[in-house]
Amino acid sequence: MAYREKLTWDGGKEVVITRQTVPVDVVRVEGTDVDLVRLSVHDPKLLPTNYADAEGTPLPLLGSDGFRLDLSRRTKQPMGFWHRNMDYDEIIICVQGGMTWETELGTVTIRPGDMVVLPRGVAHRAIPPDGSESENVLIELKVRGNVKPLGTAVEVVRNARGAAPAPDR
Question: Sheet harboring 59-64: ordered strands across?
Answer without folding.
Answer: 59-64, 67-74, 136-143, 89-96, 115-118
